[in-house]
Amino acid sequence: MKVAVIGGGSIGLSAALAAAQMGMSVSVYDPQGFELEEPSGEMSPRVWALGPKATALLHSLGVWREDPRLCPYQKMRVIDATSDGQVRFEDPELGVIVEADWVKRRLLDGLHRLPIERITSPVLHATPEGAVVVSEDQVAQFDLVVLAEGRAGQTAQASGFTQIDGGYQQTALVATLAAKAPHGNEAFQVFTPEGPLALLPLPDHGQVHRVSLVWSVSVDTAQRLQAETIDALTQRLIHASEGVRGQLEFVSEPIWIPLSQHTLRHDALGRCIAIGDTAHGILPLAGLGANLGFADVAALIEAMQRSAPNGAKIARTVERLRRFDQHAVAWSMGLFSDVFRSTDPMVRLGRSLALRTADRHGSLRRLVQELAG
Q1: Going by fewer Cβ within 10 Å, which terminus of the chain is more open, N or C?
Q2: Average pLDDT over residues 33-52
Q3: Is 350 a member of any domain?
Q4: Is residue 199 part of a domain?
C-alpha cells in the first residue's frame, strides 16, 4: 500500500512512521525540509502537556525515551480568578511537559532509520482519487493521502476540504519564565478575566526554577499587552497568577501566537484524510491540541490495520472514529471561553459550583483527564 503524508510536523511524522513500520510504502512532503537541531540550553517556550495516551503512542513508535528535558507532572490545579471555585487533579501518570521540537526531533530520528521517501517540493493539491500534484508534470498516485500540515491547511483547502471558522479569535502569549517558588511538578491554570493563564512545570535550570507560560487573551488585549514594557508585563503576570510561583522573570522573548477554532466540513474525501490541526484547530487548554492530534494518529493506525489497502475505507473509518471527540472538545473549549470570560454574577456563581462539584467527584475529574489525553 502506498501512503502519502503532506506535512512534516509531529503529527504527520507520526503517521508516516506508523505506516512505514506496518510495511507500507511511504512518501512525506514538506517544503520546510527534514532537519532540526537537537534541543539544548534553555527550554523552548513552545511546549506540550502530553497525556498518557499520546506518550503511549510515541512509545509504540519506538521514539520516546527518558530525558532530563522532560518534566512529568503528577498534579494539576485549575482555579477561577473571580470566584472560589477550583478543581485539583492528582495522578502518578497525569502527564509530561515536553518541548514540541524535542518530539519532532525524536520522530525525525525514527524517520531516518526507515526507507521513507522525503520530498521538499510543495504540493499544489491532492485529489479524492489519491493523486498528489506537485506540478503539471509531477503527479504521483497513492492509495491513501494523509493531510497533516497544521492550522492553515492550504493544501487541504486546495484539495477540496472546506474549513469552517469556529470563531474565538485570540492570541496566546508563550514564554519560558524563571520562578522564585518551586512548582512541585504541578501544572497550574487560572481562568482570568482576560483568558486562561497556565504556568506549566519545567525542569530546573541549575538551581533556578523554570515554568512555561501560556496565556490566551483576546486580540485587543494582546495588542495592549504587547505595548507594555517587560517589567510591567511581568508584574501583570505575577498578579494574574496570584503569585502562585512567586516572583517571575522572562528568560525568553515573549512569543505572540494567533489562535482560533476551526473544523472541516468533512475530514475524509475519497482516499484523502485530514488529521491534527488541519482537521481541528482548538483553543489551547491542558495540551488538548497535541493530544487530539496524536489520538487521530492512533485512529489512523487502527483503521490501517483493519482496512489496508483500501484507502477510501481507511479515510472514512478515521473520520468516523474521531469526529465526535473532535467536535465535543471544540464545543467544550468554546463554552469554557464564553463562561470564564463572563462577568455576569449568575454565570460566576455557576462556574464556581461547577469547579467545586468536579473537585468533589472523582468520576468527573477522570472524565476531564480522559478528554485531555
Answers
A1: N
A2: 92
A3: yes
A4: no
The boundaries of the domain holding residue 96 are 2-34+46-166+259-371
Residue 270, helix vs strand vs coil: coil
CB 340 within 8 A of CB 191: yes
Which three three-digit cell numbers place residue 128? 479524492
**pLDDT tens, residue by residue, 90-138:** 888 889 999 999 999 999 999 999 999 999 999 999 999 999 999 988 9
CATH of the domain at 337: 3.50.50.60
* Integer Cα distance of 274 and 187 in angstroms: 31
Neighbouring C-beta atoms of residue 268, cutoff 10 Å: 23
What residue spans of 118-264 are helical by DSSP H? Answer: 154-158, 219-226, 230-240
| Domain annotation covers residue 30 | yes
- What H or E segment, with its residue span, contains residue 101? helix 100-112
Q: What secondary structure letter does DSSP report for 39? A: P
What's the pLDDT tens digit per position in 199-255?
Answer: 999 999 988 999 999 998 989 999 999 999 999 999 999 999 999 999 999 999 999
- Counted domains in the chain: 1
User: For strand 163-179 and strand 144-147, is the pairing parallel, antiparallel, or unpaired?
Assistant: unpaired
Q: State the residue for C-alpha cell 525514527.
A: 110
- In a domain? residue 198: no
Encode 217-237: b = buried (16+ Cβ within 10 Å), e = exposed.
bbeebbeebeeeeeeebbeeb
Question: In whole angstroms, what is the distance from residue 125 CA to residue 1 CA?
Answer: 20
